[in-house]
Amino acid sequence: MLRTHTCGELRLSDVGKRVVLTGWVSRIRDLGGIRFLVLRDRYGETQLVVTPESSAYEKAEELGREYVIKASGEVKSRPQDTINPKIPTGEIEVYVDEMEILSPSKMPPFYPGEEAKDDLRLKYRYLDIRGGKVLKNLELRHRVTKSTREYLDSQNFLEVETPYLTKSTPEGARDFLVPSRLKKGNFYALPQSPQLFKQILMVSGVDRYYQIARCFRDEDLRADRQPEFTQIDIEMSFVEREDILNLVEGMIKKVFKEVVDVDLPEKFDRLSYEDAMNLYGSDKPDRRFGMEMKDLTEFFKNSSFKIARSVVDNGGFAKGFVIPNFSERMSRRLGDEFSNFVREFGLGGIVWFSLKGGEITSPTKKYLEKEYIDISRSLDMKEGDVIVMAFHRDWEELCTGLGALRIKIGQEYFKHLEKGFDVLWVVDFPFLEWDDDENRWVARHHPFTMPVLEELEKFKNDPGKIKALAYDIIINGYEVGGGSIRIHNREIQEKVFDLIGLTKEESIEKFGFLLEAFEYGAPPHGGIALGLDRLVAIIAGEKSIRDVIAFPKTASGTCQLTGAPSKVSEKQLKELGIRVEVKE
RNA sequence: GGGGACGUGGUGCAGCCUGGUUAGCACGCCGGUCUGUCAAACCGGUGGUCGCGGGUUCAAAUCCCGUCGUCCCCGCCA
């Protein structure tokens, strides 16, 4: 090693030692006679002192910030009044008598830790990582995966790798395709998840499998979605739903305890999908904001307010939630903003009233005063409370729109509630959902999920009512993981393929290998996949998973560092038998 | 596919709504003073075809259209 110590470890007890430090020059404070340098590496910062008597004095003059240097010298305690309490090495400094420039640096577009726009930060990612929060997040991420591996190992899990070059499947997200040179005109797909392989591993008798697996989905990006992302992928044999939930609770509790010393509840709360939607308007509720939604349909059954009345009379619903102590902030203008916001979700708008000086205040008071009085009493509203309400024919859309508004209000006006960790399970998901575009039922989780078998028969003419043995783990409003008990029986699997409109031929062409495997002794099994990027982002308190990934893509899927995706040569295309037509 | 925000010296921002001097501020960078600084301080200086293209106008950073890039959201994401 070129160094004897890192920049984060020297303390008073090291005083008198001769040390060699390496790192980046992060600050230069030249006081004329005496020069102070701050040397930085992954472990911390140490102040170097170069005096005119030092043989390194001339050398220190050449230095610029971000130069990589090696400095030798003696550790000395700092004079009492110059101790820097802000850094762990603040009680000592190293008097340098020998210095070597290992690598100079041009003036960077921005200094590590300095603010810069996202595209610049990504183009010079190494500067952004160096000494910045991303480096801290990568350390955190390492501790999460380490803790996860230790836990799963202790539970007899086997880490098994599965292929990245695999087969394109019809269900789910759009695949990334990789052309085959040996079989021209054919394509591999990068896996959306190792789903089928891990089930095959169960048939193989692996019994307990996990993998920190990269997954690929060619869909549009978001703050919490990248085209490639990492899952903690888990599958176990001979289990029921409860076994998986227990396992994951143990794992998540261990990770939080070890990584951030947070004690999560012994058992995580559970909410049915229906309750989650009704109370929070989301299948991934953030309960920290409170403001649970209430069904208000009955108050509008005989309403003289035509819009509400007609919605309710035609089988629609009214829902709303109370914003506590909000009447001072509420205004007609804000109400309009809320209305516009819920219109993005397909709702017509909102109505609202506040309780101010014991009176109901609302732009719609003249139409709905009676209803408002009844509602305020029934919900036991307090002085200063505001309630927002919406009417809509479709229950799910109504819940979703209001739920989105609830989150928006929470994030904008109740920021102080956004702390700590709200962990829960959402269970009892619908098995299928109707896809208007494709005009067929599609699997809500995935088509290998075990439906509640009695319901499969009972509701075969109303498949939307069938429930699945599926579960999601939600932390702070993010879907951190989801899983299910799987089908392990060819007949049921075929029945499900049939339900989602897959012909026998298609199902054999696409999933024949799975169906066949089920005929050779498939154990009952189930599992889960946890989004590692999201989990780490939540623990790190980051809004975007980009900040916990070393080299993330931009919202348009490009890598600013390398310039990917990019054109390839004619030769490469020819070898693959591919001709590119670019639309002008 | 749709909506919104942003793009101005190396960096972060102001100016734009209401067109009109030399485009302003902070940080950085360069030079100087300075032997206890720690975001060093102080003095002096450097640096911008206002993302790109077109249009309106006597005149465009400013108004209009298009385009590119980044971010957020809807759709999409089993």
Itemize the secondary structure elements and their pairings:
Blueprint lengths: L17 E13 L4 E7 L2 E7 L6 H6 L5 E10 L14 E12 L14 H6 L1 H5 L3 H22 L3 E2 L17 E3 L7 E3 L5 H9 L4 E9 L11 E10 L3 H20 L8 E4 H8 L12 E3 L10 H8 L3 E7 L8 H12 L7 E6 L2 E3 L3 H14 L7 E7 L2 H19 L9 E5 L4 E4 L4 E4 L9 H6 L11 E6 L2 E8 L4 H10 L4 H14 L7 E7 H9 L29 H7 L8
Parallel strand pairs: 3-5, 6-9, 11-17
Antiparallel strand pairs: 1-2, 1-4, 2-3, 4-5, 7-8, 9-10, 10-22, 12-13, 13-16, 14-15, 14-16, 17-20, 18-19, 20-21, 21-22
This protein binds one RNA strand of 78 nucleotides through strand 1, strand 2 and helix 2.
Can you walk me through this structure?
The protein has about 575 residues and is an alpha+beta fold. The protein folds into three domains: about 90 residues, Nucleic acid-binding proteins (OB fold (Dihydrolipoamide Acetyltransferase, E2P)); about 200 residues, Bira Bifunctional Protein, Domain 2 (BirA Bifunctional Protein, domain 2, 2-Layer Sandwich); about 140 residues, 2-Layer Sandwich (Gyrase A, domain 2), CATH 3.30.1360. About 30% of the residues lie in helices and about 25% in strands. The protein is built from 16 helices and 22 strands. The strands form five sheets. The chain has an eight-stranded mixed sheet with strand order 6-9-10-22-21-20-17-11, sandwiched between helices. Strands 1-2-3-5-4 form a five-stranded mixed beta barrel. Strands 12-13-16-14-15 form a five-stranded antiparallel sheet, with helices on both faces. The radius of gyration is 30 Å and the shape is globular. The chain binds one RNA strand of 78 nucleotides through strand 1, strand 2 and helix 2.
